[in-house]
Design goal:
Blueprint lengths: L16 H21 L6 H12 L23 H17 L14 H4 L13
């Protein structure tokens, strides 16, 4: 989705979900800023200025703030909960009117579940 991200993630061993999300945000923030800085795009300065403004009054942010604080984890205890949440994630772009079919949304794992290759490597559930 253009304005937000849904993930189904699991932990193994001593990794905490909050630690995974923290590290994900840190890693992807750096990558996103690097990509924006290196593209020839008319909105480049506007994007970088927006991320810079978002982080300028925060001590823990050096240069740019890409992600909002917080997240909304939902524990998926059962296979049914996993299946329901996966279906919700896949049909989110359809409900928003971006595509007619879930697998048509390029940034969705729905493609992988329909036998196509998505843009990210995933481990299928359910």
């Amino acid at each position: 989705m253009p304005s937000h991200l849904h993930l189904i993630i699991g932990t193994k061993g001593l990794c905490s979900l909050s630690g995974i999300v923290r590290d994900f945000k840190k890693y992807t923030s750096k990558k996103i800023i690097r990509e924006i800085a290196n593209i020839n795009e008319s909105r480049k300065e506007w994007l970088l200025n927006g991320f810079s403004e978002a982080g300028k009054n925060l001590k823990r942010i050096k240069d740019y703030k890409v992600w909002q604080d917080g997240n909304h984890p939902i524990e998926l205890d059962t296979n049914k909960m996993q299946d329901d949440r996966l279906s919700y994630l896949h049909f989110n772009p359809v409900e928003a009117g971006f595509v007619m079919h879930a697998e048509d949304y390029m940034n969705s794992s729905a493609r992988d579940y329909c036998g196509e290759k998505g843009i990210l490597e995933i481990e299928q559930i359910g």
